Amino acid sequence: MTPGVVVAGDDGSDGARHAVEWAARTAVASGAELRIVHAVGLLEHAGLAGAATVDGDEAITRATSTGLDRSRVHWSVDDGDPCTALLRAAESAREEGATVLLVVGSRGAGGHAGTLLGSTSLELVEHSSDPVTIVPSRGRATGRAGR
User: Fold this and answer.
1) Residue 113 has pLDDT above 60, yes or no
2) Taking the model in full, what pTM does it have?
3) How far apart are alpha carbons 143 and 140 in whole angstroms?
4) Least confident of 7-16, 76-85, 100-109
5) pLDDT, tens digit, 9 for 90 and up, residues 48-67
6) Helix, strand, or coil here: 48?
7) Domain locations in the chain?
8) Are 102 and 124 in contact (CB under 8 A)?
9) Among candidates 92, 90, 34, which has minimal Cα distance to 60?
């Protein structure tokens, strides 16, 4: 499958930044459009969330630094939980006739030490009808030596 649209989640975390870079490189390689989505939930609206700062301009710059043309990168902010926002973005792209690949980091801004996958990535895999790529955080061991 060659995606026509790559949808990447960005919550401002290091994991999301790596996922956006991976998604952008994939978009370059496949000639796809990249749609970066930031979800704003109730806690963030109320100023109660301890989420990382999210800068759409920085995300676009990060994506275009991979060689992706600026005209093929779109940033959006969507109300709701991250999984729902990403699924809506994917549905919108499918309605336009595009094949979709969803991309998220393995753990986001709310990640707890010791967990391998975050709640958003797990929920997305469970509910998506499109392929999902979960990008591991940099610097984290991916396997055990000697096994």
Assistant:
1) no
2) 0.84
3) 9
4) 100-109
5) 555 556 889 999 999 999 99
6) coil
7) 37-79+98-115+125-138
8) yes
9) 34
pLDDT in tens, 124-146: 999 999 999 999 876 444 443 33
DSSP string, 26-42: HHHHHT-EEEEEEEE-H
What does the alpha-carbon distance between residue 39 and residue 73 come to, in Å, rounded to a whole number? 17
Greater confidence (121 vs 42) lies with 121
Q: Is 59 helix (H, G, I), strand (E, B) or coil?
A: helix
The strand order across the sheet containing 5-9 reads 73-79, 33-40, 5-9, 100-105, 132-135
3-state secondary structure of 72: helix
Which residues have C-beta within 8 Å of that of residue 62, sequence separation ≥ 6? 17, 20, 21, 24
Q: Tell me the sheet residues that pair with 101.
A: 6
Q: Measure the CA–CA gap between 110 and 50, rounded to whole angstroms.
A: 8
User: What is the DSSP annotation of 50-106?
Assistant: -PPP--HHHHHHHHHTTT--GGGEEEEEEES-HHHHHHHHHHHHHHTT--EEEEEES
Which residues, including other chains, have CB under 8 Å from residue 56's CB and lie 6 or more apart?
36, 38, 75, 77
